[in-house]
């Protein structure tokens, strides 16, 4: 993977159109980027009052050096620690539009698959500038960091953090490139039971570690299923998050099915959900933990040296 060749060409194209030969943006130094829904987002100057509409967006804004510009965030925006002090504007599925408007933001950063589409459109109708985020892969996470940093006026830090993130992922990819594949089931939620297909960001973490997603072929990004389907698939490993950063109850519940390969070999692994289920640079840390667990499963094979 090459960092410079994989970032979204749309961002580069937009920047090329806006920059003059002297290196300054046209139209009175306005800033323009393309968001993850292919819409142009333009600001006359770097955003100074930002509202974040999802916990992972809040985290990314801090990572790119724009945390002090976030004046509103949704519930559960808990990382890094200063994020807990940001005034709330509702939950990501239950936004308080009046509260958002009262903040008078010059930029709202929304989550395409998490926020209500009608809420996003209503914010635009009310005259707010909205950037919509929906990264599907590691390159997308890095590119989104860069584009948000452009809008916030922290482009240099955004580029540095994006490159550091991709370097970490590439190191893991190289380390585990030749390891034997490990069939696994990744549990996103318990009731209803949910997993991810191969288009999801978590699936790229699985691939980097040499895992094989047993439900990767399904059409839906986050498929729902019954336990019988998982039992029939009989994965070698079950990995999941839970209702908190240190609550492995969902994964431990699989021990009831002691005929499953993952249970017989004690390959039931809990990973803190914020490290894999949020689209942030910390997914590199979660991926490293997943890779270590899959290697543990390889070492537990009867024919392992």
TrEMBL record:
Q: Where is the Fe/B12 periplasmic-binding domain?
A: 49-302
Q: Does the keyword Transferase apply?
A: no
Protein name listed in UniProt = Cobalamin-binding protein
Q: Does the keyword field hold Zinc?
A: no
Provide the organism lineage as a comma list: Bacteria, Pseudomonadati, Pseudomonadota, Gammaproteobacteria, Chromatiales
The highest taxon in the source lineage is Bacteria
Q: Which Gene3D superfamilies match?
A: Nitrogenase molybdenum iron protein domain (3.40.50.1980)
Pfam families membership: Peripla_BP_2
In the UniProt record, the signal sequence range is 1-25
Sorted UniProt keywords:
Signal
Question: Record's PANTHER family?
Answer: MOLYBDATE-BINDING PROTEIN MOLA (PTHR30535:SF34), VITAMIN B12-BINDING PROTEIN (PTHR30535)
Any one GO BP annotation for this protein: cellular response to iron ion
Q: Which InterPro entries match?
A: ABC_Transporter_SBP, ABC_transptr_periplasmic_BD, Vit_B12_bind_prot
């Amino acid at each position: 993977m090459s960092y410079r060749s994989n970032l979204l060409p749309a961002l580069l194209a937009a920047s090329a159109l806006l920059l003059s030969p002297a290196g300054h943006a046209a139209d009175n130094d306005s800033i323009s980027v393309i968001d993850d829904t292919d819409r142009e987002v333009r600001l006359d100057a770097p955003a100074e009052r930002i509202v974040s509409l999802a916990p992972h967006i809040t985290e990314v804004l801090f990572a790119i050096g724009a945390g002090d510009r976030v004046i509103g965030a949704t519930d559960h925006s808990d990382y890094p620690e200063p994020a807990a002090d940001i005034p709330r504007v509702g939950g990501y599925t239950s936004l308080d539009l009046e509260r958002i408007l009262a903040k008078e933001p010059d930029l709202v950063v929304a989550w395409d698959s998490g926020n209500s589409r009608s809420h996003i459109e209503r914010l635009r109708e009310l005259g707010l500038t909205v950037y919509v985020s929906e990264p599907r892969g590691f390159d997308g996470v890095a590119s989104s960091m860069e584009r948000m940093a452009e809008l916030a006026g922290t482009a240099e830090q955004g580029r540095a953090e994006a490159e550091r993130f991709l370097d970490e992922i590439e190191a893991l990819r190289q380390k585990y490139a030749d390891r034997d594949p490990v069939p696994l089931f990744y549990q996103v939620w318990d009731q209803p039971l949910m997993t991810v297909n191969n288009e999801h960001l978590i699936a790229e973490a699985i691939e980097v570690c040499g895992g094989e997603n047993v439900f990767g072929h399904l059409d839906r990004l986050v498929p729902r299923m019954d336990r019988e389907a998982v039992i029939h698939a009989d994965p070698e490993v079950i990995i999941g998050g839970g209702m908190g950063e240190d609550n492995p109850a969902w994964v431990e519940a699989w021990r009831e099915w002691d005929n499953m390969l993952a249970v017989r070999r004690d390959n039931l692994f809990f990973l803190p959900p914020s490290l894999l289920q949020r689209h942030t640079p910390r997914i590199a840390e979660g991926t490293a933990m997943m890779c270590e667990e899959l290697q543990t499963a390889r070492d537990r094979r009867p024919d392992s040296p």
